[in-house]
Amino acid sequence: MGEQLPARAQVVIVGGGIIGTSTAYSLARRGWTDVVLLERNTLTSGTTWHAAGLITQARGTWGTREVVQRSLDIFRDLESDTGFSTGFVQTGTMNIATSPERLEELRHQASVMRGNGIDTELLNVDQTIDRHPLLNPEGVLGSLYFPRDGRGSATDTTMSLARGATARGVRIVEGVTVTDVTTAHGRVTGVETTSGTIEAEYVVNATGMWGREFGAAAGVEVPLQALAHFYVVTEAIPDLPRNLPTIKSGDEHAYVKDEAGALMVGFFEPGSYPWASVRIPPNTGFIQLPEDWDHLGPFYEKMVERMPVLADAGIRLHFSGPESFTPDGMYHLGEAPALRNYFVAAGFNSVGFLSGPGSGSVLADLIVEGRSSVDLPEADLARVQRHETNRRFLEARVVESLDMAYEVHWPFQQRATARNLRLSPLYAATQQAGAVFGELAGWERANWYAPDGVARHYEYSFERPNWFEYSANEHRAIREAVGMIDTSSFGKLLVQGRDAVQVLSRVSVNNVDTPIGTITYTQWLNDEGGIEADVTVTRVAETEFLVLSGPATVNRDLAHLRRHILDEEFCTVADVSGTMAMLAVMGPKSRELLQPLTDADLSNAAFPFGASREIDLGFGFVRATRVTYVGELGWELLIPSEMGHHIWQTLGAAGEPHGLRPVGYHAMNSLRIEKGYRSWGHDVSSGDDPIQAGLSFTVKWDKPGGFIGREALEKIRAVGVDRRLVQFVLDDPESLLFHDEPIFRDGVLVGRVASAMYGHTLGGATALGWVTAPEVVARGWFEEGAYTVEVAGRRVPARASLRPLYDPKSERPKS
Fold first, then answer.
1. Which residues contact 369 (CB under 8 A, 6 or more apart)?
2. Would you tell me the crossing angle of helices 18-29 and 352-369 to the nearest 10 degrees?
3. What pLDDT score was predicted for residue 283?
4. Which residue among 38, 520, 570, 718 is least crowded, i.e. fewest CB within 10 A of its CB?
5. Distance between CA 636 and CA 433 in Å, rounded?
6. 3.90.1200.10, 3.30.470.10, 3.50.50.60, 3.40.50.10330: which CATH number matches 8-381?
7. Of 141, 165, 161, which is closest to residue 152 (Cα–Cα)?
8. How far apart are CA 588 and CA 474, in angstroms?
């Protein structure tokens, strides 16, 4: 008879790999020991057992680099805590460049990494070969060296974490399968297993590549797909040096590390393929896939050229095993949006070992404290779109995630697979106008417009891209004349019912109990005062509101609002995004364009800023809202889908005398950053409060009934802040910014760029960036001092401002 399970536990963790055991360990370190970890086979038997063991800090976002920093702290201290070796050794990593484009990427990467406090060193060819003499220097242009990177044993680390957890009281039970997750009233209540039922307050899905199927059983969408993943281990090589730096050669899609007198060569090669996309075998462990030398051989031969010692080395192991990858190449970490206390840590895109200890630590933060100092909106489960769990979509898109893993990561790079899923009612019209489309949340969106005779494609670059001047013209059209942006992809939530105003008032910091026909800009906070949503709320009737959200955040905002409707309240929320087209008609001549096309009075007196009304336009009717996201006079037009093409044609026919241009999202982004308008998930998220973010003007402190997070926010206001979101423009008009570049004040690292675009009106790269002071300081401190931003190794002087550098008094939108 197997081990008897407890009747209840505070936390049940499902999955006994590096992620599950690290979560158990971190919970136990925080004093939460009423924890049960269930593994249906044996620990590490999923994908952990075959992990290559690399620990590399070069991750793609600020938050994921912070996760690896936490992992490194645990790797360094774990053996001394548990007495069980992890095999951790600090060897360093060298990312080598064999093309000018790769070398430029490494220069940018070096600066970005320093912003996280990660030690890096750009090496020339001789320095590279000195550190790794087995490399063939032919074609090598240099490398980026990470001296504090390392490697370890995935199996030993997992066992060490398990020992550390059980020593503190956690129960780990192998050979037990969880068959179901029980829920009630939108919250988990426990699990059912092959050995009985356990009541639980929290459930953690750490089931690795089974995460999609296990999540679906509880109604939680976890898009991931297992792909064939390969590495080769040679026979012992005589006189091989020990603990050489790990080599990562992106241009050759491979990494190499020494291992017990041999070499391991692993691949992130293009052209991999899905495995078991219909259903992963449920009760198998230690899965190996068939060898595929026909596929792998050409990539291995390239690495033989790069490291000639491989040519005479026999092959001891040609390993192929499944690894789970996600549609956007980012893992899933956090609470399910529509099921309270159900947490997911899965889909690690073959970086689970190096991310595992840190991810378990972050998950423990979220469970114990309700928040973490590592803010990861990019890993939030609420970003998931329904179509992303479709098997055929996953097969196409997730392969591309692996294909791109070791490619140059270009600014503004677009995905190529599984496109044309969600089309705006204006798609055909924008396509005819010359749109070059990007994709967000499945939506095809016009990012820029190519003039007649110009090829409609991206030419990627770290310098000014091929669309730079065309987007600049679109930018100037809105600043100087009028432009129209197809914003149909934006989320639209219809909130109705007797208690709709009560619900919205409770979650909103601003006053939404306004007259019918009024739009309100507001944030929704968590209990700690962090920003959970950044939306507009339009009152269209006494008990009816329309909430406008971003395309990638609408599911999150929908779940947040539903979560805060009390059982006794009469209020419904429906996602009506696809029922309406939406056009932003913006610019100083927007009134001149629109007025002859409607009988409504669009004068400033009759239709003031913040008003929202149904008006006639052309041969139809639209909801026109006087608002802006670009800092100019303008209206957002909500249009019945079937009328979208007519309204576009009507505006286009009347627009030539006014200088009307179709405008894409690249220009919209440059316009909004010049004006200092925030974007949730880029500039602000749940770890930032409105005071830090410069959004306290939206907060109505004394409104009746208050709002969620008010008590925490009042404490922050009373104490003051040591961190603020600041606007910057570079002095050098040629330099470009993208995101995460480090910010220095008087030569001291104080922050990072959150989002950036070229400010065509301001005449330089413009950014919103977070700046941290050594203590709580007066507001003026953040604008004082000599600021520089590091761009690809160069520190470029920048001007800082807490007020918008463009139209600081916001006179233009209200003209």
1. none
2. 40
3. 73
4. 718
5. 20
6. 3.50.50.60
7. 161
8. 14
